[in-house]
Amino acid sequence: MKKLALALSVVAAMSSPAMAEGNAEAGKTKALVCSACHGVDGNSMIDMYPKLAGQHPSYLEKQLKEFRSAMQTGGKEGRMDPIMGSMAIGLSDQDIADLAAFYSSQALVVADVAEVPAAGETLYKGGDMARGITSCVACHGPDAKGMEAAGFPALGGQHANYIKIQLTKFRDTNRHNDLNGMMQDVAKKLSDADIEALSKYISSIK
């Protein structure tokens, strides 16, 4: 909880004027090259790639800039991903703002989940005090819409497999662009079964 409080204070102190104003119509055109993986409207049909529709624009901008930064610094900064890095390296700040504006304006399509593990709901809503696992609700909210001002993404309706991949990366420290290492701290305490249950539950939230 100390890291959460510190993260919120850091976000509150951050200024936003540096962000370019995005144009959704311009972003729609620029997003054509992204549609093979993320779908024409940001609702990816491939479960290893995230749905981008309805995501907070500031979060989308952050991720694209960090994919670009990782390529520019050889992985010393940002978020390293060979595929996304090669896509983001040529984007300007305006391109990124336009893409974020487009995807955030699209409606998320949430698929029905056949089996929703009770263990996933329990972890999401209440965490596990005995293991020092903070509830996901604390940052992502009961409806999994996240908190844009604090930089916490919307998760509800996301592909379960994508969530599973990212939680595993945070746990294994293969992804470390989370504010203050908060997601790494949570994920390192999760078992494979925990991650599986959480991923399926989160993907079912509408």
TrEMBL record:
It is found in: Periplasm. InterPro entries: Cyt_c-like_dom, Cyt_c-like_dom_sf, Cytochrome_c4-like, Cytochrome_c_Oxidase_Subunit. Residues 1-20 form the signal peptide. The keyword ATP-binding does not apply. Residues 22-107, 115-206 form the Cytochrome c domain. Gene3D superfamilies: Cytochrome c-like domain. Keywords: Electron transport, Heme, Iron, Metal-binding, Periplasm, Signal, Transport. It holds the Pfam family Cytochrom_C. PROSITE patterns: CYTC. PANTHER family: CBB3-TYPE CYTOCHROME C OXIDASE SUBUNIT FIXP (PTHR33751), CYTOCHROME C4 (PTHR33751:SF9). This is Cytochrome c4.
